[in-house]
Write a structure and sequence with these properties.
mainly alpha; about 80% helix; 20 helices
């Protein structure tokens, strides 16, 4: 009976369009009263315990780093390198856009930051070069989604927080699927623009672009090299990346002043003010659920109806694709990961592999209405109607669905760098 009232409470709050933090707080309070110790002050205690983790600091640091590079010239310099490298190929500018998104994703950890940093430069350039409008929009929006699968990734950090999975292993597991999506998107761009004339490779331009962008290109090398070699934790890597980005933008490239950083910090503070209360309540709710063996009960319930791991994965993928259309990635991970991950482990799926599959599903949600964040942000950034953006995203949604199916079918693509096993 209590479960019935809990579902009713959630549905009522959703109908009243309450913010996620209010819904989670109400659920946490109900669980404490109905199944917990009956004292609401325990929620505050659990919130404090949940936020007392060093890893949480990496989230604002990575976002700050991405915003600094967007405000400076890092994105433009990386784009110039990629454009000079791909210009001999038909549709080389489109391929350069995808590769630039992939390289920038290896620094920013955010889909929106990646799309805006690359898109504000590449979209006008592609349109000026005569590229199809839908292709240009689709390439930029889908390329932006690489920000959450190519490490470092903020959703991976959030998943690691709520499931206690190794964030370093999640970063390693994201490399293979990220490169797979990068390759397939580039191949599609080559095929779509196969009749476009290409240019000869300009060695002088390529060398000039490399000299001009060497400091920007070194950032992902330092960041990921430090993480994977064990010199940095994820939080230390985020701090080093932010410091490096500030140094090259303020004193090397001289595209930014220190007073500009103050504005970036203020903008970031607004984001933190909305993110951290949700994170605190979600993590405290996770503590309560574990105390009362809710994940274990879900495992027993699922195994009574679904006997095959393949059937379980099919159902989970359908659920996550539907959720991705209605929730942001962070919200979906905070709510579903603590519940689904123990069930996935019971069916034989490693928690790191399941995290990558979950993020790949939710990555597609950035391109699907009604809550596709890349669609909504692109509508404002590129001054395009929402319907046009949805049509532009359709081919890339199918591309990403195909890549998701390949990773589920061949999990070594994600896990090879983690455990070194090849089929």
């Amino acid at each position: 009976m209590s479960a019935f009232w809990l579902v009713g409470l959630v549905l009522l709050l959703l109908l009243l369009r309450q913010p996620l933090v209010v819904i989670l707080l109400a659920v946490a309070a109900f669980v404490q009263i109905a199944w917990g110790r009956g004292q609401l002050d325990y929620i505050l205690e659990d919130m404090w315990v949940a936020l007392d983790k060093e890893l949480i600091l990496s989230i604002p640091l990575f976002i700050l780093c991405g915003n600094v590079m967007t405000l400076g010239s890092t994105a433009r310099r990386l784009i110039r390198i990629m454009s000079s490298l791909t210009q001999p190929l038909p549709g080389g500018l489109g391929i350069a856009a995808v590769l630039s998104c992939g390289l920038f994703a290896a620094i920013s950890g955010s889909s929106i930051v990646t799309m805006l940093a690359i898109g504000t430069v590449m979209y006008p350039a592609m349109r000026a070069a005569g590229y199809d409008n839908k292709f240009s929009l689709g390439t930029i929006m889908s390329g932006g989604t690489l920000g959450i699968i190519i490490p470092p990734s903020i959703p991976m950090i959030i998943y690691g927080l709520v499931t206690e999975a190794s964030v370093i292993d999640l970063f390693l597991a994201g490399v293979g699927p990220g490169l797979l999506i990068l390759f397939v998107m580039s191949a599609y761009g080559l095929w779509f623009n196969r009749k476009k004339p290409s240019q000869r490779f300009d060695t002088a331009e390529f060398l000039s672009a490399c000299r001009n962008g060497v400091w920007a290109a070194m950032l992902p090398v330092i960041l990921l090299g430090g993480i994977y070699s064990g010199y940095f934790t994820a939080t230390e890597a985020a701090a080093v990346a932010l410091l490096y980005a500030l140094i090259i933008e303020v004193w090397v490239h001289k595209e930014m002043k220190l007073k500009d950083f103050y504005r970036v910090v203020l903008d970031q503070s607004k984001l933190g003010g909305s993110l951290f209360p949700v994170l605190a309540v979600a993590l405290s709710l996770n503590i309560v659920l574990i105390e009362h063996r809710v994940p274990g009960q879900m495992v027993e319930f699922m195994q009574g109806f679904v006997s095959s791991p393949l059937m379980f994965m099919l159902l989970v993928n359908l659920l996550l694709l539907a959720v991705g259309c209605l929730m942001t990635t962070g919200e979906a991970i905070l709510i579903l990961a603590p519940l689904l991950m123990p069930v996935a482990e019971a069916y034989g799926y490693n928690k790191v592999l399941f995290g990558i599959i979950m993020i790949l599903n939710l990555e597609i949600g950035f391109l699907t209405p009604p809550v596709g964040l890349n669609l909504i942000v692109a509508m404002s950034a590129f001054k395009q109607p929402f319907g046009e953006l949805v049509k532009a995203a359709v081919p890339y949604i199918f591309i990403m669905l195909a890549c998701l199916a390949v990773v589920v079918w061949q999990p070594w693509i994600a896990m090879y760098l983690v455990d070194g096993k090849f089929p």
